[in-house]
Structure formats: C-alpha cells, structure tokens
Amino acid sequence: MKSRLVVFDLDNTLFSINTHHYFSDHFFKSKSKFIYLIYKILSLKLFVHLYYMFTKRDIKRDFSVYMFSFFSSKILDDGLEKIFKNLDDYKIDKTFNLLNKMKSKGYKVIVLSATVDFIAKYIANKYDIEIYSSIIKNGKYYFDMTGQKVNYVDEHFSKYEKYLFVSDNKEDINKEFKNYIYVYKDMYFKNIEIESFEC
Q: CA–CA separation, 41 vs 172, rounded Å?
C-alpha cells in the first residue's frame, strides 16, 4: 500500500497573507524610498492589468524578485526576522490544525507555494513544515511554482497515494486526489468533492 500524500498551499491557506507581497512591501519600505515608490506604482491596477495582459505574469512579483538580487542574503535574512516576527498573528488555526493532524497520522505532508525560496525556507524552519517553492537566481525565476503544483506532485511524489489537497486556489487543486478542500477567502472550508472532512 502506498503512503498517503497530503498537500497544502501556503498563502491564504496556512496564512491569511500573501507572504511574498507582504515581505516585499515591508522590506522595500524599510530599505529604499525610491524602490518602494516604484513598487507601489507598479501595484496600481492599471499596471498590474496591462502587464498581465501581455505576459500573463504578476508585475509586483517579477519586480520584487529583480530587486532582491541587489541585496545580500544576510540583509534579506535580517529582513525576514524583523518583518515576520509576528507571523503567528496571520496563522489560520483551522488549516494548521489539520496539517498537524495529518502529520501525526504519519502521512507525507508537504506545502507547495509560489512564494520565493528564501521566504519559504524561513517559514519551513520556523514552523517545521516541508515546503517546495519557487526558486530565484540572479534576479530571475529559475523555477516558478505558479501554475505548476499539479505537475510538481506528479513529477516528484508519484510514489504516494494522492489523499488530500488543501488550497484557496481552485486551479491548484489536483482532482486526482481522493479528497480536496477549497479554502474560502473568509477562511472557512468548503469541500468540493467530499461532504465533510474531520479537522
């Protein structure tokens, strides 16, 4: 019998924030008024819409990834410690409780996230969870998890039984999983396929 695989999304599933945007906003604000001003201008709906229309990408993410390359790992790590010192305030207890329950049962529990690797590593160490994320090198995406979660599971975790997938994004959810749970933006559960699931 295959071991069971349980997959969680990170942003708006385990935490009520987008960890990449939250960090970027606070980090640039603390480091450079000029960079922060550009970041906020690019956050305007007009720029977000136009950029996405031509590239199908998030302009804020791409800009922030480029700007991260101008800061050392130590500066970024120090920023994580300061900016995420109150990260517990954004934990979604219901999904964390479910995650811990699945871990206690001995299932293979992983988190797949489009957030960048240095943020994912910090959160993984802080909360003792196994996270696979986007990877950045030299101001660009070496690997972007956005839209790739289904493929990532198929490519790297095929030896497991697809037991449960939990996300706030319906596009993330692999319907080959036996169970899957869609997390509303207001942080309540709605089961797409199953009537109920014990938390």
A: 29
The pTM score is 0.90
Q: How, if at all, do strands 108-116 and 4-9 pair?
A: parallel
How, if at all, do strands 161-167 and 140-143 pair? unpaired
Domain ranges of the chain: 4-16+90-191, 19-83
Q: What is the pLDDT along the chain (199 residues), one digit of tens a residue?
A: 689 999 999 999 999 999 999 999 999 999 999 999 999 999 999 999 999 999 999 999 999 999 999 999 999 999 999 999 999 999 998 889 999 999 999 999 999 999 999 999 999 999 999 999 999 999 999 999 999 998 999 999 999 999 999 998 878 777 788 888 888 654 445 554 433 455 4
Could you say which architecture CATH assigns to the domain 4-16+90-191? 3-Layer(aba) Sandwich (3.40)
Question: What type of residue sits at position 54?
Answer: F
Tokens of 28: 């640039």
